[in-house]
Records
---
Amino acid sequence: MRHMDDLEQLLHRVGQQDRAAFALLYERTSAKLNGIVRRILPEMTLADDVLQDVYVRIWRSAAGYEASRGRPVTWMAAIARNLAIDVRRREASRGLGRQVVYEPDLGGAAPGIDAELALALRRCLEVLEPVQREMIVAAYCEGMSREELADRHTRPVGTVKSWLHRGLAALKACLSDD
Amino acid sequence: MTDPMDMTAAEYVLGTLDADERAAFERILMDDAQAVAEVAAWQRRLALLDAIAPDVTPSPELWARIEAATRPEAANDNRVASGWRGAAVAAALLACVSSGLAVMGWQKPAETRVVTRTVASKMDAVATLTPEGATPAVLVGWHEASGRYEVRPVTMDVDPVHAHQLWLIVEGEGPRSLGLIGNEARWIDGRALRPGQSATIAVSVEPLGGSKTGSPTGPVIYSGKLIRLPERS
């Protein structure tokens, strides 16, 4: 994505309900947000509905976006993940579990974020204990709940929670060393 | 040792809080700048995991659906507008409540009925707060007997970095704060802030915790005139 820096300007215009800017924003970001939604909902036909809701939400809340708090793509990705995870939890509560395991490519291309930060996060994820890293990545990328992680790793939910906390704390400590 | 609030923020970003924990934390986020900053820091720390998501082109018809879902529906607006002019105010209110909820798609129909019944039975005046020409975002009802405002967000989105502050503007006077609102229905004591015969209600975007000056400092995103409902027999 070559024009990531323009996204801030585009979002600002979308906040003023500029439809042309909205179309452009969709063109630039929909493949990425769709990828994020589909990591969480790979086998579900609901993914299109979720992506639609994501852009409706962006249209309505763009006026509240503030550049000082993060990049536009991070803000939009958070909306996409939240809505996709909501649907996933709802489906899980109806007994529709996840079948496809997502294999993240942590070394893959990472457009749209600060290269230095990407490098630091890669390095810090690598120094985590493998099980902690797997859980953090599976929770974030696949939208796994603590219960699902407990099933996958055949451990009690309480153990999962403390592993997650230890992993997150280690990640934070590692990143602030830089 | 790990700070519990920071871990909650981290799990909020990670997506592993359960529904109750998440709702509780979202209430904290509405007016706790520290919590908001922690969430932002975790989003930044984990941003790589968004960036490595593969690009997947959405199906070609999706954009048309999004366009339709975000376009202000002319037919719908007309129905609401004519309703205000006539006597069937409750019906119009039902129309805008249900159109709002249909867009959101997650409210139960049963709740819609409860909303309308409450609204139709006790309210003396009502304002639909909308951005220019769009679907109503917030409904505000004035209940004369109890001196209370009933606030029902319909399609307003929570903005974790700002507060949404509600204002009463009585004709000929400056704006007076009715307090902060979130995306949950609430009642506001308005015994000292009665709307009189002609008033406008507005929502402005303010720093977390609300305007420091006592007047709106940020943009007004929604507003609407408070309209007296006809006496009902």
Note: Residues 105-178 of chain A form a domain with the Arc Repressor Mutant, subunit A fold (CATH 1.10.10.10).
---
Amino acid sequence: MRMNIKPENRRLLEALDYIDDKIVSDMLAEVKVPEPISPVRDKKVTRRSLRYFLTLAACLMLLIAAVPIITYFVPRIGIIFSGNAGAGSGTDEYDIPIPEGGLNFIEHVGEVPEEFKEIIEDNLFLRAYVYGDHLIRYVWTKEEHVFYFFDKSGNITRQVGYPESEKQISMSRKFIDSEDNMLVYFAVSYQDKNNDYKMVSYAKIVKFDTDGKIVFDINLPEGTGGFDYMIETDDGYIFPGGINEKKSKTHKEDVFIAKLSRDGTVQNTVTIGTSGEYDTVCNAEKTDNGAVLYLCLQKTKKGYTRATWNYYRYDVKNDLTVENITPITENDVPERGPFYFIDGKGLYSINEFIADYDALDYFGVELIDYGDFVLFVGDRYTSDYDIIKDGASAIIPIKSYYTETVYAAYTKDGELIWRTAVDSTNYEMIKELLEEQEKN
Amino acid sequence: MDDKRIIELLFARDEQALREIEEKYGGLCRYIASNVLAMNEDIEECCNDILLAIWNAIPPDCPADLRAYIGKAVRNRAHEITREANAWKRGGRVQIVGDEFLSLLDDGTDLVSEFEAKRAGEIISRVLDEGNRQDKKLFFMRYWMGMSIEQIRDQTGFGESRIKMSLFRTRKRIAAQLGKEGFTK
């Protein structure tokens, strides 16, 4: 006999939502996900469901409409990237409770050489990326994107600003260091207010000269994105990435390759893929007269079974003319990083250097080559705290973290010379989250 | 793609992360949602909501375990949809599982606040951790994932009566512990 479930007792069902994360994780890893239960198919219910769906869609649109406003007034992304609390910052400034048990700082080893003291004190290399002889650090503000260029001694050699466009509510970035200057790839997405708040996304490639002036700024067709590679040829650049399939509701994607001249003219584009499936570039390499692309084209899958892939080696000339298409096996696709080349030869896995603790490569873990030794820069957790977010579409307790940036110098044989760290916790963000929680 | 890389992409605001999540966890999302929601449209809506929620939440969130994070988020969102649309009456399988689970407190216990639900969740976790792994797994499959006894039987190879007995014992242990900690009347 069915019970009449009182609203109060549904709380007990909700109690299952608060089962320990570790149990959930362990069990989800162990349990094989079976085919979903066949949904009810009933005309009456379908019509009712349609009304419900439309109501939900309307709510979702309202929510989406609010995103640009929220993004403008609550620039959390900016806080993250500019959140260098540095050694001078601390919990006193923000009145943040230190978690029970205190903060677990890493052990400092050896003597920090004089020339690194200022870099570390100001945490200059926080989440910076190494390109050749220089480092680039990206900072987001409400008004613009700023790229700071440092030499290895911590001197700012260049500062490049790129204005935030009014409609571009989220942009991701990759730094691509070309021979002549810097190319930056942005993934742009925004809600088009003039078109029923339809989501619009496309890739943007911007090139700067050595003075930081924009050489070209082009938008690739709508739906493009995921440009992980850039092949620099004699007369321009080959960008292999992806493009959403039209009429696709479930992120189906084809491979999209664009050839750009040095002045930013799109000379040719190619789209390859299986209709209705997710196809991607798994790796790319430069050749003497063009590029070799390793394509992973998804086979048709049934139901919710795991997808399988067909692999191809795709040779193209500089102008994207196809030279050769060869079916290959998964093993023939060269593996991707995270690996670091030192002196142009040695191959260092990051784990060889940081095996003694967990580094957070979410924020960019870098090895900077100083000739005799390498400097490792990366973040790690010093503690965590729970935040219960109310009013979000998924009500779940989340963990946020206290962090420090570790600076560690190693010989090229992997032996630790010295190690120190500086607090990089984003206290401002913690305060904001705690205040939000208190309000709720 | 490993979870760390996906989170890294989310931090870089790269939409590729969503495609990777869909590829890696899309099946899990739909399965968990399908055990709570009856309609295909609801299931798809739930999974799409989760993608948007993840995009908005990370950063600043930085989940230590993406699989658990997504699993919990889907489950919560699916329950939220049932509440919002009164879908409870539509014959979703959650009602059957819910009845069975709630029967452990059929003496009239009410958990009236979110705080109490959270505390009950902690107690349930503790009881599960203290028991053997097999019982924990069967409980999780039945009540968290909403799998049918038949599905559990097929996956574990245990007989139905053994599964039911294990679930009964675990429910009893949970009820006893909740009682000790002041939840039952």
Note: Chain B touches chain A through 101 residues (CB under 8 Å).
---
Amino acid sequence: MVCCSEKNDKDDPTTESQSSKQASIDKTRRAFLIALGTAAVGVGVGYALGYLTKPAEVIRETVERTVTITRTITVTPTPVPTPTPTPIPGLSGAASRAIAGVRDLLSRGVIAPGTTIRILHVAGSRANLEKAIELWSKYVPEVKIELITLGTEPDVYTKAMSEAVTKTGAFDAITIFSTWLGDIVEAGLARTLDDFYTKYDPEYIGPCAPIEPLGSYVTMYKGRRYSLTLDSDVFTLSYRKDLLTSETYRKEFEAQYRKPLKVPDTWEELIDMAKFFTELRLTAPSGGRVWGAYFYLEPAFAAYITWFNIFVEAGGIPFDLETMDPKVDSPEGRYAFDIILRLKPYMPPEAISAAWADLYDKFVKGETVFTAAWPSLTKEAMRPTSAVRGNVGTALMPGVEVEIGGRKIINKAAPNPVNWVGIISNYSANPEVAYLFLQFATAPDIGLDMVLTGVILDLFRACWFTDPAYRAKSAEGYGEEFLDEYMESIKISYPDILIRGGTEYLSKLTTEVNNVAAGLKDPEKALSDIAAEWDSITKKYGRDAQLEAWRALAQLFPDNVKNVWRAKGYMK
Amino acid sequence: MSREIPKSIKLLSTLPLNIVLNAVLIIPFAIMIYLAFLKWSPAMGIDWWMAAFIGIANFIRALGDVRFINALTNTAIYTVAVVSIEFFLGLLLAYLMLEEFIGRKAVLSLIIYPLMLPPVIVASVFYLMFQPYGPVNNVFLRAILGEDALRITWFLNPRLAFTALIIADIWQWTPFIFLILYSALSAVPKRLIEAAQVLGASSFTIFWKIRLPLIKPLIIVAVVLRALEAFKMFDYAYLMTGGGPGVSTETVSLYIYRVSVLYTDISYAAAMSLIVLVMLAIIIRLFIWYFFERVK
């Protein structure tokens, strides 16, 4: 039917002029439709391009805003009005100022009742933060705090870096590893907090300030404050006191090894003791086997801690202070692997594959004799459900015997990995309120309640160890022995690689340590691979900039470590 | 009277969809290609469109990256292993399910049940199952090996860890191949089978000479789709082994994920993704040509 009707139209001469007219109309219509189509494509492409360039506008806005603030400070040095520090009954100064600050913002209409602050954090800190939120809502119920919880630590980094790229403003504050601070600041996500520190004084000076130098180096980057500390994470050696002080085992060990069974001073001593207890084949209260030791070798993020600790104690320096060349492929690096491989047979096999929390689980069940972890391990071991409650000893990390000027000394150092800190997003709609919540949560009084309630956040203010009232409360959670040993550990603590690319440097190290521990790679090969990987990271971010940052960071290592570096000619 | 719709109208009516599709498909893809030629990480403090152009440096780096090659090798072995096993199991199950028996419908539902689960759940369950005191050691292997079974640590031995990943994949994805092949086999005309039977062909001959050639186009669909999915495997490796011990079970998706989000080396990750894409396209094309077009 279609073909015939078309044919008829064409054959009929009377319709010729009509056809011509029709063709003209069709042509005009075609032209119109083409023009319309072109316009639509143009609009579509324009919209797409506009969408793609949108982040650039955000950046321009941010830059303009920064310039305005700088001018205000320079040209008209009017001090930012500080809210009247009205003491609020039952609250410390820092907490009072935080609450007064929020109330002031509410009363001036800067924020509306019902404002919600969103905090991105890892699951392990949920109970800690919930405690702080519970206390906060007693004073400012008008401002809600919403927690966005992620399962594992690397997830938080991933999400934070995604936010740095997409700039959505979905989170007002994020709790991060201090190791990530360099990356996160450079990516433009973390807002500088210098102005809020001045305006609200979070008590970072004085007897209740965060423990130094930790408090400064985990919150500062290139001389400016970017975070509030939520935690301190210096490692200590934890051990089962009941086994180490048992008269029977003391005699047996002395007979077997011709030396006393005591808290090990060196890794060499610890290997003997770990071997001794492993070979006893004891059964833990849980029914599981008791292993002599458990130190981190797992692949997700923590394996570097053990290797790096032994390496630093042996006098190793991660980078050359003149050239930024990696110095891991060295006798100290090989020694660290040697210790790990000799200790491995006395550790539970899961040390190589299980997540970091497995170490906690096994120690709390009484299945390991010696272990090293964050302070929260002791907190967990003190809980009523712990099988080792009352039997946990704490000591400094085992050291390495080194020679300085012909004299042998035991060099000890303690890792300070992670250190959760809170940053405020540059893309937050309410940065000031988000900051005030973090100041409230980390204030001397509220902060201690928060730390004692949950799992992964630990004691970070000096007065919690020294002030009698606070100390008594801290001791309930951690025990007196721990508090003393922890203060000593802080003196010999060293930071993570807190420079740009820190996560990547440590992540590559973790992979190689796990490779060696799993027997998949020769230590020599692993060390040369780490050196090559580290060098490529350094090149990526620029050797000069990385060297400058490393030189500043190296100064934060404890004096005893720096003395060994000087004796070996690594440091002038 | 009916008239053919002018081309311009057709074009215009599909224009919105074309714009959306192109925006959704082409623009991100173009950005990915562009990123692969840059030196960019969010930690550099600049936006991607400001990053330095470094030509093919990322591609050269990838080809010399031992870990990338290791991940590619792992993924290739994994893909070949799971697709082959799943294909034979799926085909066998599909063939058996052609027969009528009591409870056939219930069995059919049970077979496809794993497909409905999110891979993240399957990975978590299999992670627990393969623990030293998990049911695999404690129930199945203990019955054969006795107490020695409890000493098997699946995730500490590279081969065992790899095997655990393969088992999880087979458990979940065999039903996918089964489903396609079962529907294909069911659609084979009965008259052809009956004719062959009348002529005295054995069951094996009927299967080999009649059923299999007739379902060939659907076999290719099943195998190609499954191979593409298996090559992108991330969930099981991430949750069950974390790519370990060491990097012995690290797949290409897991490595690219780490490079892009953990090391924030996004331009390098884009280059690796492009290499994988091109490689996969070539392999799949060769596969189709070798098994199907070559014969024609």
Note: Chain B touches chain A through 44 residues (CB under 8 Å).
